[in-house]
TrEMBL record:
<keyword id="KW-0378">Hydrolase</keyword>
<dbReference type="Pfam" id="PF10996">
    <property type="entry name" value="Beta-Casp"/>
</dbReference>
<dbReference type="InterPro" id="IPR050698">
    <property type="entry name" value="MBL"/>
</dbReference>
<dbReference type="GO" id="GO:0004521">
    <property type="term" value="F:RNA endonuclease activity"/>
</dbReference>
<dbReference type="InterPro" id="IPR036866">
    <property type="entry name" value="RibonucZ/Hydroxyglut_hydro"/>
</dbReference>
<feature type="domain" description="Beta-Casp">
    <location>
        <begin position="238"/>
        <end position="341"/>
    </location>
</feature>
<dbReference type="GO" id="GO:0016787">
    <property type="term" value="F:hydrolase activity"/>
</dbReference>
<dbReference type="InterPro" id="IPR001279">
    <property type="entry name" value="Metallo-B-lactamas"/>
</dbReference>
<protein>
    <submittedName>
        <fullName>MBL fold hydrolase</fullName>
    </submittedName>
</protein>
<dbReference type="Pfam" id="PF00753">
    <property type="entry name" value="Lactamase_B"/>
</dbReference>
<dbReference type="InterPro" id="IPR022712">
    <property type="entry name" value="Beta_Casp"/>
</dbReference>
<feature type="domain" description="Metallo-beta-lactamase">
    <location>
        <begin position="14"/>
        <end position="207"/>
    </location>
</feature>
Length: 341
């Protein structure tokens, strides 16, 4: 069976990067993610954390654009990588935004350098639709295919057909019946399966249970004229929350329409706009709501906060107004970002 080297997400859950070799020694990378939290300890001293040769790497295949799956791409490019980067349509659109933000926050504020990286990234990106087999030039697989993973918009698990069998990389998998996204379907076959297991030892609440719990908290907020602070990732979690909150407000009516819902994250607001433009990738339930005239991600009560000055004004407004509100803010893993300041 094919040889696989793991360059991350083995002894921890971040830094996903897996190298699949063919019989001739050529290879493809599945993701190239950043180590985060305690898992990056001791790595800061390494200015170029690509610790493996890339001369025989014929492509990078991206499962989705969370930073722990794509954050080392700038380092890969700096190491001289010029091969195609395959991604789904949504991932190809969101990825440059993710990388640009990551560079500004963690690497450099040099606009010229950032522009060069993003320009190269866009030039290498190859968009692939779900369910379509695509050949990778120079690599001994008969094809690679993206299938819906249900994690965030554009997320996919990856199937690669080799002469001696099919290899499947799960990426990150979403739960069935997640808001907005079609549910993932298991592959018919896998001779070798590389699967994430971050939450493999726990049972998640059903979506209906989570929605009821969220409604109870919001009702308490309305009664007390309080503020709910929700830390949320800019991609995926923010949009799911907006979708569920809009549905609760729509269903309950009355005083619920007086509730301010505030997204305090410019990046999350930008991603939300892209989510709306890619609504053909939403699940049937979400598309039906749009067809009925509703706006699940841009409803009347929604307020977006962009600049830091606006953020400070928002904090002061919430202190003095006494109006009930929900604030969805950049989480920074609850160690940074606007949720803590």
């Amino acid at each position: 069976m094919a040889r696989i080297l793991h360059h991350g997400a083995v002894n921890g859950v971040t830094g996903s990067c897996h190298q699949l070799f063919d019989a001739s020694g050529n290879s493809v990378l599945i993701d190239c993610g950043l180590f985060q939290g305690s898992e990056k300890s001791g790595r800061e001293a390494d200015p170029l954390p690509i610790e493996f040769p890339i001369e025989q790497v014929k492509a990078l295949v991206v499962t989705h654009c969370h930073i722990d799956h794509v954050g080392r791409i700038p380092y890969l490019l700096a190491a001289g990588f010029k091969a195609p980067i395959y991604a789904t349509r949504a991932t190809a659109r969101l990825l440059p935004l993710v990388i640009e933000d990551a560079l500004k926050v963690g690497v450099t504020r040099d606009e010229s350098l950032i522009s060069k990286v993003i320009k190269l990234l866009k030039r290498l990106l190859v968009t692939v639709e779900y369910g379509k087999w695509v050949a990778i030039p120079g690599f001994g697989a008969t094809g690679v295919r993206f299938q819906v993973a249900g994690h965030i918009l554009g997320s996919a698990y990856v199937e690669l057909k080799l002469p001696d069998g099919k290899v499947v990389f799960s990426g990150d998998l979403g739960a069935p019946y997640s808001p907005l996204l079609p549910a993932p379907k298991a592959p018919y076959r896998a001779d070798c399966l590389v699967i994430e297991s971050t939450y493999g030892d726990r049972l998640h609440e059903a979506r209906r249970t989570r929605s009821r719990n969220l409604q109870k908290i919001i009702k308490h907020c309305l009664t007390d004229a309080g503020t709910i602070l929700i830390p949320a990732f800019s991609i995926g979690r923010t949009q799911e929350l907006l979708y569920e909150i809009e549905h609760i407000i729509h269903r309950e009516g009355g005083d619920w329409h007086n509730l301010d819902v505030i997204v305090d994250s410019p990046l999350a607001a930008e991603f939300t706009q892209h989510y709306q433009e890619l609504r053909d990738l939403w699940d049937a339930e979400a598309r039906r709501r749009v067809s009925s005239g509703r706006h699940p991600l841009s409803f009347e009560q929604l307020i977006t906060v962009n600049s830091h000055v606006e953020h400070i004004r928002l904090v002061q407004y919430l202190k003095r107004s006494g109006r009930p509100a929900i604030v969805i803010a950049a989480s920074g893993m609850c160690a940074g970002g606007r949720i803590v300041n």
